[in-house]
Design a protein that fits this description.
The complex is a heterodimer. By secondary structure, chain A is an alpha/beta fold. Chain A is built from 9 helices and 13 strands. Chain A starts with a helix and ends in a 7-residue tail after the last helix. Classes of the chains: A alpha/beta, B mainly alpha. Chain A: InterPro entries: Solute-binding_3/MltF_N (IPR001638).
Chain lengths: ~240, ~290
Amino acid sequence: MKNLILTTALLALTAGSAMAQTVRMGTEGAYPPYNFINDKGEVDGFERELGDKLCEMAALTCEWVTTDWDGIIPNLQSGNYDTIIAGMNITAERAEVLAFTQNYIPPASSAYMALDAGTDVMKGVIAAQTGTVQAAHVAASGATLLEFATPDETVAAMRNGEADAVFADKDYLVPILDESAGKFAWAGTEVQIGDGVGMGLRKSDTELVEKFNAGITAMKADGSLNTLITKWFGEKAVTF
Amino acid sequence: MFLSCADPSLLDGLNWLACYLTTGKHFDFYWSFVTVLVLLAVTAPTALAFGFGGAMLARSQHLPLRIIGKGYTAMVRGVPDIVFFLFFVIALDQGIEWAVHQVRCPDWTDPIRNGLEFRVCPQAKVPNNSAAQVWHSLYGFALAVVTFALVFGAFAANVIYGAMQAVPHTQLETAEAYGMSPRQVFHRVLVPQMWVFALPGLSNLWLILIKATPLLFLLGVQDIVYWARELGGMKTGAFDYPHPDWRLYYFLFLLVFYLCMTKLSEVYLNRLQNHLSRGQATAAGEAQRKGIA
């Protein structure tokens, strides 16, 4: 049975290749407004629109794939998709294993959100998503780090009182704070981490990195990238 | 789905709920129940076959076969499931691609392994990069079935091995005395009698398998728990249907689903147990005989 399924699958899957280059775009799908799964069940958000635009400019066919944040780098390396476009901050550690494009979101602030503005974020328990620059920052800051697999769970932990505050990209937290009807507040000071958000690719995919870099450069030059950032992150967002 | 759902912000009450529960995303959620049920329906018999094969190997007269059978159960049972699911699937996937690569791209000179990266030629990608997403999903599903069958097959092998040992030796000797060959003894006496001993262990495995399906997400298959968490999470105004954290309700629904599955399984397994005990030289079989007489 299992062999039958495998062989049929193999035959069907490997037949008919060598058409236009298809690039599989890997994202998390749980980080609005960067990327999320909309009510139709499709990947949506700032990065979806940006990615589609970049693919169009480079004449690539793009397929969107979602994966959990924890396995997003290993899955890229073993070839399950070709790019990571998931609000990933460019850092020196990640650049050791990934080839980043230039940033498509300028270095932006990370912020602490809590139930009470007076919360001391240097002590106490701070929630952050596993494997993010924010988690590393909390671990180094002296506060107790409480890690979660998805960004949504970090906010839920703060709301339930399990954590004193949540630490994440400010752009992610802004809509949540705005819609909380005054329940949540900013705490502590904002922090600048990383060199902005870029796409991560396999180091051996130099040609593809160049294609996306060219697209991002063009979008920075004609201002369409700024328009896109303002559309998704609001007027106050940092632009190029 | 409904025409009236075109602008969700105008809806309220039950209309809102009806539209909310029929979004494309919710249909993905409902569809994932089918995925899980199909996975169970395919995996259970496959795992049973693996288990039966493993038990036969472990009982073999020949030392090499016995070592394979015992080695299989010992190795898989000894490794934590989650490690197995993370490691084995990647190894299997890369093994398949490596083999295809050897056939299709003999002239490829770049290294396949480059540090942590695994890179075969584009023609050797399984499924091909340009294949529709449905093939990628099917491939992931097939890998999931193989992995589940392998893991649960090892446990089943041990249960079946034990059950075969539990069949009273006198039964087998009597069969031999009647002049049956070892093969006939196995088919006519040992196997029909061992099921009744294997069933309690196998029913345990079945229930564990039902609950192990969230591991599917590790294999890239989006299962019911993934969707429950995704749909239940707080939704801001970026979504058509904003709502607060509703994970509790989604997980309660899953709880009901899993409890129903367990209840159904218990009813069916009890019936099977009754059926298998009929005419057996066990306490249950004896009780049935007295009941009839």
